[in-house]
């Protein structure tokens, strides 16, 4: 069993990188990809523990982007997974990720101000205190929960932090095309994350994204129904894309999603998925 999409406390997960390695062992995983948001810090921290445990650890990252569909021109959110199964990316890519993190910090400052304007006594410092390194909306959600403004993290997003929430503050994101280019220049494989969660029709633009350099699509996901998984597997074949997959495990942030198996066992990523990623990332490609 493998899981190529998990998060740690280095972004918005609730388990440290070291704890993730232990949890992966307990779940019977043979391979794991830490794909924290806009940072490789979780992977970096987990390497030693994974080597000691004999766990096949894959370097990955999840990048928040915007994509303007050619049909409408409207910019929509899209998450891109970057996989580096041969070797981790170098300094140039890491510098670019730090630029994205700086934008996230600026968004967080605006978000805290907006919450306060709504009469909610929530500060950036309080949210940051719950994060190990990268503060995200989930940490604001936990502060809202702790202070009794909401009854759950889900309610915090629904009422305040999500795209239709009262305090929603957009993040200045990279374009999807730029993120694809950056991942490929760094020797990685760009794959569209959890397409079933997109607010736009992936089927209509997949050819366009393939032409822009997209190499994969996350067919197996904790966000997908069996019918969606089958559809994305077929789309991958039709567009000559690699298949990726994982639970999108966050721990307490998504308590129903289990490491390795997703939501109610809806994820089972076959080993050949990682084998094909490694073959595509070889120096001969």
Summed over residues and divided by their number, the pLDDT gives a mean of: 92
Identify the overall geometry: globular
The quaternary organization reads as: single chain
| Cα radius of gyration in angstroms | 18 Å
Q: What proportion of the residues form beta strands (DSSP E)?
A: 15-25%
What CATH calls the topology of the domain at 2-88 and 187-280 is TIM Barrel
Q: Identify low-pLDDT runs.
A: none
Helix content: 40-55%
Q: In the CATH classification, which architecture of the domain at 2-88 and 187-280 applies?
A: Alpha-Beta Barrel
Q: Tally the helices: what do you get?
A: 10
Counting helices, strands and paired strands, the structural category is alpha/beta
In CATH, what is the class of the domain at 2-88 and 187-280? Alpha Beta
Order of helices and strands: EHEHEEHHHHEHEHEHEEEH
Number of strands: 10
| Largest β sheet strand count, sense and barrel closure | 8 strands, mixed
How many angstroms separate the termini? 26 Å
Name the CATH homologous superfamily of the domain at 2-88 and 187-280: Metal-dependent hydrolases
List keywords for this structure.
10 helices, two-stranded antiparallel sheet, alpha/beta, TIM Barrel, 42% helix, globular, 285 residues
């Amino acid at each position: 069993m493998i899981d190529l999409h998990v998060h740690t406390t280095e972004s918005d997960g609730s388990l440290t990188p070291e704890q993730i390695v232990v949890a992966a062992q307990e779940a019977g995983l043979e391979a794991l990809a830490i794909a924290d948001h806009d940072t490789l810090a979780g992977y970096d921290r987990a390497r030693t523990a994974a080597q000691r445990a004999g766990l096949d650890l894959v370097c990955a990252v999840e990048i928040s982007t915007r994509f303007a569909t050619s049909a409408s021109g409207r910019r929509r959110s899209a998450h891109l997974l970057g996989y580096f199964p041969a070797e981790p990316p170098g300094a140039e890519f890491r510098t670019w990720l730090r630029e994205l993190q700086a934008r996230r910090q600026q968004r967080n400052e605006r978000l805290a101000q907006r919450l306060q304007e709504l009469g909610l006594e929530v500060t950036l410092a309080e949210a940051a205190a719950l994060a190990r390194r990268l503060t995200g909306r989930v940490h604001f959600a936990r502060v809202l929960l702790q202070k009794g403004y909401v009854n759950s993290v889900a309610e915090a997003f629904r009422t305040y932090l999500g795209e239709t929430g009262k305090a929603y503050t957009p993040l200045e994101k990279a374009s999807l095309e730029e993120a694809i280019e950056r991942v490929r220049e760094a020797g990685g494989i760009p794959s569209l994350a959890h397409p079933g969660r997109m607010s736009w029709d992936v089927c209509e633009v997949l050819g366009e994204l393939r032409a822009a350099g997209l190499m994969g699509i996350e067919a197996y996901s904790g966000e997908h129904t069996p019918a969606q998984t089958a559809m994305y597997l077929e789309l991958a074949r039709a567009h000559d894309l690699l298949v990726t997959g994982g639970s999108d495990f966050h721990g307490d942030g998504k308590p129903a999603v289990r490491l390795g198996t997703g939501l109610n066992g809806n994820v089972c990523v076959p080993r050949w998925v990682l084998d094909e990623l490694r073959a595509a990332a070889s120096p001969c490609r």
